[in-house]
């Protein structure tokens, strides 16, 4: 119409529903228009965010003057104001820092009224659909699973990238003009740069001697690059950071090991009412950070110290199971699950699924009935050992001197434990086990096994890690090794870094394939994690590094969840296959029980030589304690 003798006299935009439902009242909304001045917009917005008192003004600003810094601001623009809207958001992020961003793209209707330029009575109404962008910036965490979310930690790197590009481009424009080198840029930037280069050439032809055109086009190029970097991240996902977040939104993480439960005991003796599980600043995991790290399933370990072995380990384990169950039922963001299908259903409900594990066979006190009762309480995985041997399995650690023997493999009872776990549908966990015990368990188990939090011995030669020959046995079994992030297991020498963690993934992938890898952070159980992976919220940083190393997305999806789900599915399939089998009645030998100072032995018969053992003082006292009960039977 503008070229047909008409001029625009009115423009109205249709107000649709808010792209950010559920925002608290009082959020500052900055409506950016084509004619708005960025200086005025940013002056008002910065004052409100920093708590300065301002007067309500025009320029598209909605809101009232107030004192006290706001926590959130929304920049909205449509049509030709889209680029200006992005510019405002980028300036705000750079000046305020540590802002979470959520970007929504949509279309909106616009009605324009045009009238004749010659003063006639004719009038024309035009309805158009234009692109619109809304950018929410928040000092408080946002839902990381929302499409268009960008975490604060990626912004520093983004600005550094842009500053490098700005410097390079400004330097380039000081040299004689030549072809713009486009090969090093993503496709989105290449298209933009080619367009800017053509415009620059056209402008210089119009006025070849003017430095103003050169400087202006250099500045324009830098601004466009900044805007394109932002749009590419939102629309096309070219950066590894954006790709990592997108991939984790589609394949949220199953973390094979977390020791939050023992932290709850240490912090409050399991009194949940005394803790804020949304913000446990003294721990490396809480609900907020689990969500920020895209952890959809967390395997929580019920762990008790090895010093409780053959004393009160069973009672303490029950207390740890209880606190995990209470935690996962009292908080709506958590959900207790007991099956692979339950994990998938929880993912559909967008809750964090809690899977129960027992860390260390000393917790069952050499009792298969105790193992079965743990299963009834929801336990779906158990490590055969922790940092101590049990009477039937050997540990990788020599920290404790319990049950030392020349054979570091499984005893007959230990083999029965593995078979009973297969029958129940409980995952056999070999982290902390000696290599000989692990090899024996792999050879006996009919179902795939896991190392829930172990890394590659070839990269860091710690006995808690897994050597290549044992990795190859694991591959034959169809199991999974879930890489541990503890610094002491990541880098035996030098500083533990994200890159060094990725070296473990690369080595295991080269040795047995990506289908055998998962992630078991071990947060809460140890002190010291690589820089950049300090807590569970930082998992996207690791995924970003794998993508940077050209891991295919399908393999990363397996690492995140699919490989563990495959193992869990197969464990349940073996359970169904063994459903006709009777519970094992295998027991520790009675002679071993008699030689233990904390055992009350009730049996109808004793092996040869056992009666002579009763002549020792401790068993004499045991006999005297039993005598009143026996007399009461008559």
TrEMBL record:
Keywords: Dipeptidase, Disulfide bond, Glycoprotein, GPI-anchor, Hydrolase, Lipoprotein, Membrane, Metal-binding, Metalloprotease, Protease, Zinc. The keyword Cytoplasm does not apply. Its main location: membrane. Pfam families: Alba, Peptidase_M19. Belongs to the histone-like Alba family. GO terms for molecular function: metal ion binding; metallodipeptidase activity; nucleic acid binding. It catalyses: an L-aminoacyl-L-amino acid + H2O = 2 an L-alpha-amino acid. SUPFAM superfamilies: AlbA-like, Metallo-dependent hydrolases. It is an enzyme of class 3 (hydrolase). This is Dipeptidase. It comes from the Eukaryota. It is found in: Membrane. The keyword Amino-acid biosynthesis does not apply. Residues 29-107 form the DNA/RNA-binding protein Alba-like domain. It is a lipid-anchor; GPI-anchor. Its cofactor is Zn(2+). Its EC number is 3.4.13.19. GO terms for cellular component: side of membrane.
